[in-house]
Design a protein that fits this description.
This protein is α+β, with helices and mostly antiparallel strands. Helix content is 33%, strand content 18%.
Length: 356
């Protein structure tokens, strides 16, 4: 039976390399063999100057950010603390045992300096390699979205209607900033409740839990090998149906393939999306949003659209009770007319359910 001697650290190691300690089938070996991270030099060249301190090589920064996502590390600070404990990570980054690990701030500074385009290029290059390897067909696209929690506290949420603006001059500047962010969004998000630290996030309730600040990730997935070919992030309150066309266009751009079939759930089943797919020659396997919500929630005891008959000659609708609904209002934001009968007619309708 052997006994372990007290630990005596060696000053010099002979015959030791990280290369020998990383198994042949390791996922990071496969990534290193397939992906050329050196492309980032040319992508971010214009964001560096000729004077000052020498930066961390851009490929190392890109690999660190990939490790952050690939291993679901909770924070950049934790990533830097874990790197010296993982020989496979050290090998993947091209570092040796005695190399100094950079401060976690280099990652946030790199993101701010490079901008989103550098990371989009990286994603596109990987998708393109998947296409070349035969992992992506491109003709069929599955689209879905999910909520992710924002890295911001609910305590940062301000109620724009209740704050005493006249007592806080700083609030006026904050409100101007929030207005700028709100106007930049592609779809309506929270108007009243906004985060002072992360105005892009939306206050969203999901399930039975409390409302939280969230974002929404939208993904397009090719079903052949389940490769994500298109992705985008929006405020959590963004309607999923509003981004379908952009996800399809991004998929076609990244794969250079024409989409023939789109598969999505009923949240995407709007008239606008059906027309978009028809005009683009795409077969839509999408349930109708209106039919899926019929008779549930706020639509309970409400007649569906097909229960009303339109008289084109008189430009009126005939309701299920046989009454005429005339054009009353035009809603510019929704781009449609509203047809109504008088309130007295509806209040005495024979089809109106009796109060319990």
């Amino acid at each position: 039976m052997g006994r372990q001697s007290p630990q005596q650290y060696k000053f010099f190691l002979t015959g030791f390399t990280l290369e020998k300690r990383i198994r042949a089938e390791h996922i990071l070996r496969k990534i290193s063999a397939k992906i050329d991270f050196d492309f980032i030099y040319a992508e971010v060249k214009e964001t560096y100057g000729a004077n000052g301190n020498v930066s961390i090589p851009p490929p190392i920064i890109l690999k660190m950010l990939l490790l952050l996502v690939l291993y679901n590390v909770r924070s950049e600070r934790e990533l830097m603390e874990t790197i010296p404990e993982r020989m496979d990570w050290m090998w993947f980054l091209g570092l040796d045992l005695d190399d100094e690990i950079p401060d976690h701030s280099v990652l946030s500074k790199a993101r701010a300096r490079w901008g989103i385009e550098a990371f989009r290029r990286f994603f596109q290059r990987v998708v393109r390699q998947c296409v070349e390897e035969g992992l992506v067909d491109g003709s069929k696209l599955f689209v879905d979205a999910s909520l992710i929690q924002a890295d911001a506290s609910n305590n940062s949420v301000v109620d724009r209607e209740k704050l005493q603006r006249q007592l806080d001059r700083g609030y006026e500047r904050l409100e101007e900033r929030l207005d700028e962010v709100k106007q930049a969004k592609t779809a309506p998000a929270n108007v009243r409740f906004l985060s002072a630290t992360d105005p892009d996030a939306s206050v969203i309730r999901h399930g039975a839990g409390k409302p939280k600040l969230r974002y929404k990730t939208h993904r397009g997935v090719d079903p052949k090998r389940e490769v994500i070919t298109a992705t985008m992030v929006t405020p959590g309150a963004t309607d999923e149906s509003a981004v379908l066309e952009k996800v399809v266009a991004t998929h076609e751009q990244n794969t250079e393939r024409k989409v023939e079939t789109v598969v999505a759930d009923s949240r995407y089943g709007t008239i606008e999306n059906y027309l978009m797919c028809h005009d683009a020659g795409i077969q839509a396997h999408i349930p109708s949003l209106e039919k899926s919500q019929r008779g549930t929630g706020r639509r309970e005891d409400i007649f569906p659209k097909d229960a009303f008959r339109y008289d084109r000659k008189g430009d009126i609708f005939i309701c299920p009770a046989g009454r005429r609904l005339r054009r009353r209002h035009f809603y510019r934001d929704r781009n449609h007319f509203e047809y109504l009968a008088s309130s007295g007619v509806c209040s005495h309708c024979r089809l109106k359910p009796n109060p319990a």
